[in-house]
Each structure stands twice: as C-alpha cells, then as structure tokens.
Amino acid sequence: MTLNRKLIGTVCAVGAAVCYGTNPLGALNLYAEGMNTPSVLFYRFGLAWVLIALVMAFKALRGKESLRVTRTEFRTLTALGLLFIASSLTLYLSFHHMPAGVASTILFTYPVMTAAIMALFFQEKIRLATVVSIALALAGVLLLYWGDPGGALSTVGVVLVLVSALTYALYIIVVDKSPLRMSSFKINFYVLFYCAAGMALFALLSGQHLMLPPSPRAWLWVSWLAVVPAIMALVMMVYAAKYLGSTPTAILGALEPTTAVLIGIFVFGEPFSIRLLIGIVLILSAVTLIVLSKTDRTSAPVEQR
Question: Alpha-carbon distance 9 to 157, whole Å?
Fold first, then answer.
C-alpha cells in the first residue's frame, strides 16, 4: 500500500509539474491569434475562477466550507491577489521579449529568492546551502542572459521575469506567515477573482481592450490555460504533497521549466545553445539544493501558477 501511495504521489507530482510547464503553450498560441496579454490572463483566470466557484458552491451546499472571511483574512487575500496579479502579468509580458522556455526557467529562481528573503528579514538561519544556491542561481541567470545565439536576451524581458519570481516568492511568504486557515480551493476562489478583476482594470488603465477569443481554436487554448496548468495541476499537486511529501514534490517541480523549454524548442522553434543548457542546469541545481536543505514544508501557493 505504501509503494502504491508513493507511485501515485510521484505520478501526480510529475503530472503537476508538466501541466504547469504548459503555460507558454497556451499563451504563445493565443498571442499568435492576436490576443493581448491582459485578455489572455483575464479569460484564463476568469474561467478558472468559474470552475473553482462551482467546487466551492458544492462544498457550501454540503456544509463543508463557507465563503465567509474575517477582516484579517480579507486583507491577507487582497495582498495575495495583488502579488499574484503582478507575478502573472510580468511573466506573460516577458514572453513578448524572450523565449518562453528561458523565461519559465528564470522564474524557477523563486525558491532561492524565498530562502534569501526569509534569511534576511525573518531571522531564518543562513545556511551554506542557501549561499551556494544563490550563487548558482545568479550564475545561471547570467548565462541565460548572455546565452541567446543571437546575442544577449532582452533586458526588459529578464527584469520582467525576475519581478515575477520576486512577487511570487513574496506571495509564498505571505501565505506561510499569514493566519489563513482555509483550503486551497477557498484561497484560489478569492485570489483568482482578484486576478480576473485586476486584468480587466489593467486593460482599462493601459488603453488596451479586453478581446474575446477570436476563434474556436483560441477558446480551446483559453480553456487549456484555465484547466491544465491551473485546475488539473492544483488537484495533482494536492495528491502529490499528500502521498509523496512536499520536498520530493518540489524537486520533481524541476520538470516544469524543463517542459516549458522543450515546448519552446520543438513547438515554437525557440533558439537553444550549450550555454543556455548550462544556465538551466545551474538554476535547477540551485533550486534542488535549496529544497534538499529544507525540512519538509508545504508549498500550497504553487498550486495557483
């Protein structure tokens, strides 16, 4: 029975990481359809919110969980929503400036950023593994920056994805340090609502209009983004953490940027080189070292990417 649980957990962890890694597949296809970034994210978050709302309605009818929140929880959920808006928007904007696979790999520096912030501001003990991981991650990012066969990567793109990683690291820390005591479905219900509303507001303020998906194919990719890298990944991540443990689940999460890189190369013809490969390996090594140096911790926020 234990072996079966570990096998199920491993399969779910791999499945969740691969599902997360398909974000560029949906985003780049929708960009090719002529949709702008806020529209892509609005429909992704909006449809995912509808699906989560159906789950929460079912749970509420059965008396398992209500949608009520306290003032403190409301403030925390608002902060989480704003952070996740910033993280998602900057990541998807970075796809316009650099290969999506490389952007997804740089984004994976967020566990290293989380460890550094915890050490600097929350008196968490600075371990040698943390220092080495930061050095490896920085070296990896620099190699990725200079690794494009056509020259250096876009500075704007690199800054955008680093901001995405930083805001996601802050998101994780807020969840970890907050008094929230609710299911991931309930957290997702509120955060996804903020994200959909935030994308609509961003479109208005930036002078862009929300575009309906222009074709059945575009609706298919919107549905893909809402279901595969969101809902399916969320469900599999829950089982992975439950049956396998959060540390091995986090290590297998390295398959996420690997998936994004492979999609970029084989589906969209994005450039690749030995230097890029070394940069990716350095970043994945940094994250693996950080994870292995930690005790078993939950990582529920990852469910929402």
Answer: 35
3-state helix, strand, coil in the chain (%, to 5): 75, 0, 25
Residues 6 or more apart whose Cβ sits within 8 Å of residue 197: none
Read off φ and ψ for residue 74, nearest 5 degrees: -60, -45
Domain containing 233 equals 2-304
Residue 273 gets the label, from left (phi > 0), alpha (psi -120 to 50) or beta, of beta
Query: What is the reported pTM?
Result: 0.88
H-assigned helices in the chain: 2-20, 23-32, 37-61, 71-94, 100-107, 110-121, 128-146, 155-177, 184-205, 216-226, 233-243, 246-252, 255-266, 274-293
Note whether 101 and 269 are within 8 A (CB). no
Cα 175–chain centre separation: 15
Tens-digit pLDDT profile for residues 196-229: 999 999 999 999 999 999 999 999 999 999 999 9
| Segment 13-22, tens digit of pLDDT | 899 889 999 9
Residue 225 is which amino acid? L
DSSP string, 25-44: HHHHHHHHTT--HHHHHHHH
Chain segment 252-291, per-residue pLDDT in tens: 888 889 899 899 989 999 888 888 889 889 999 998 888 8
Tokens encoding 298? 């939950």
CA of residue 147 relative to chain centroid, distance: 24
Q: Is 29 helix (H, G, I), strand (E, B) or coil?
A: helix
> Counting Cβ atoms within 10 Å, is residue 64 exposed (0-12), middle (13-18) or buried (19+)?
exposed
Percent of the chain at pLDDT exceeding 70: 92
| Selection from 88, 63, 38, 80 nearest residue 190 by Cα | 80
State which H helix or E strand residue 118 sits in.
Answer: helix 110-121
Domain count of the fold of the chain: 1
